[in-house]
């Protein structure tokens, strides 16, 4: 009589999500990416507490840390790194870089995660609705997707951010970035819904008297959850980069509120005399985007293998 190995038995008794998690645990890149993401997430959530460990707030000036006779250059090596300022200080102002980098993570990740939430919710709702109901509903939503994707989004974002002045910049950036991001995931969800709505279990629920809302939430949504999770992780680095680009161009978060993009923009004038001012926020931005990209690629390979081959 044939015997079954423990690994095969475990795989046979596991659901798709358990198998996906097991595959992700075996990947070193996923483990490293999760550590990096967790570190920056903790930094963003506990920014006030972490920055207080250094003894400085992000808006506090320290004129004793800069040399007024050298154009406000930081005193000491590597941009003024010392026991008082762990990552040095900003030129001219003397603000603590450790505090500003930490609070910059909070602003940058808050905007990126909030905009991603808007994109995922709006895109998933539009995609499921278009794919399931079809007909005029599908045609109207598909034309809206095409119209939104046809806009030169970055130029339109710059214009909107430049015109709106006396508003909360974080809320405005979140709304503007989310406005142009939803069609991509909506197309993915629409395609998945079209392939699911005629499956046997969906037809059975329809024959059993279930309404559209129950079918969409109980039958169709779990079927598109895998690709949505995978593409959500891939969207986040783009959102972080977009926020940084808008802040770099001067239409994003305004001083004294710190963000990584804004710090990189301000450091351009000092990259030859104080390279650490440029390097620190750039490294944070690079590591965050890279970690989310690697994590998103791994999730797409595991949860949506057909999408990764296309």
Describe the structure.
- This protein has 310 residues and is mainly alpha-helical.
- Helix content is 73%, strand content 1%.
- Strands 1-2 form a two-stranded antiparallel sheet.
- Helix 3 (28-45) packs across helix 6 and helix 9 crosses helix 11 (212-248).
- It is elongated.
- The two termini are 42 Å apart.
Structural class, from helix and strand content? mainly alpha
Amount of helix:
over 70%
Radius of gyration: 24 Å
Main sheet characteristics: 2 strands, antiparallel
Low-confidence stretches: 1-13
Shape: elongated
Query: In order across it, which strands form the biggest sheet?
Result: 1-2
- Give the integer mean of the pLDDT values: 85
Total number of beta strands: 2
* Number of discrete helical segments: 14
Strand content is under 5%
Distance between the termini: 42 Å
In sequence order, what are the helices and strands, one letter per element?
HHHHEEHHHHHHHHHH
């Amino acid at each position: 009589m044939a015997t079954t190995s423990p690994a095969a038995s475990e795989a046979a008794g596991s659901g798709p999500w358990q198998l996906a998690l097991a595959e992700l645990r075996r990947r070193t890149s996923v483990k490293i990416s999760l550590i990096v993401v967790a570190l920056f997430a903790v930094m963003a959530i506990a920014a006030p507490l972490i920055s207080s460990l250094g003894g400085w707030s992000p808006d506090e000036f320290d004129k004793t840390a800069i040399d007024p006779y050298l154009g406000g250059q930081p005193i000491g090596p590597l941009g003024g790194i010392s026991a008082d300022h762990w990552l040095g200080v900003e030129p001219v102002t003397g603000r603590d870089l450790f505090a500003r980098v930490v609070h910059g993570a909070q602003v940058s990740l808050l905007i990126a995660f909030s905009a991603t939430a808007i994109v995922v919710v709006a895109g998933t709702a539009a995609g499921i609705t278009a794919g399931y109901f079809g007909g005029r509903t599908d045609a109207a939503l598909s034309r809206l997707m095409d119209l939104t994707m046809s806009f030169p989004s970055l130029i339109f974002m710059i214009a909107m951010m430049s015109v709106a002045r006396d508003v909360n910049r974080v809320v405005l950036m979140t709304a503007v970035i989310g406005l142009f991001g939803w069609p991509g995931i909506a197309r993915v969800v629409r395609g998945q819904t079209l392939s699911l709505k005629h499956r046997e279990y969906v037809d059975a629920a329809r024959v059993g008297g279930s309404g559209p809302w129950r079918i969409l939430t109980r039958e169709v949504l779990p079927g598109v959850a895998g690709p949505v999770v995978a593409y959500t992780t891939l969207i986040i680095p783009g959102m972080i980069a977009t926020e940084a680009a808008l802040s770099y161009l001067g239409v994003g978060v305004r001083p004294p509120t710190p963000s990584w993009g804004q710090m990189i923009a301000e450091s351009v004038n000092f990259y030859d005399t104080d390279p650490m001012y440029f390097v620190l926020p750039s490294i944070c931005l690079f590591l965050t985007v890279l970690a989310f990209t690697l994590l998103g690629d791994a999730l797409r390979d595991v949860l949506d293998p057909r999408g990764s081959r296309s």
